[in-house]
Amino acid sequence: MADAGELPIRMLHDRILVSMEVEAGERRSGGGILIPATVQLGRRLTWAKVVAIGASVRQVKTEDRVLFDPEDRAEVELRGEMYVLLRERDLHAVAAERLQDGSTGLYL
Question: 52-89: string of b/e by CB count within 10 Å (b at 16+)?
Answer without folding.
Answer: bbeeebeebebebbbebeeeebeeeeeeeeebbbbbbe
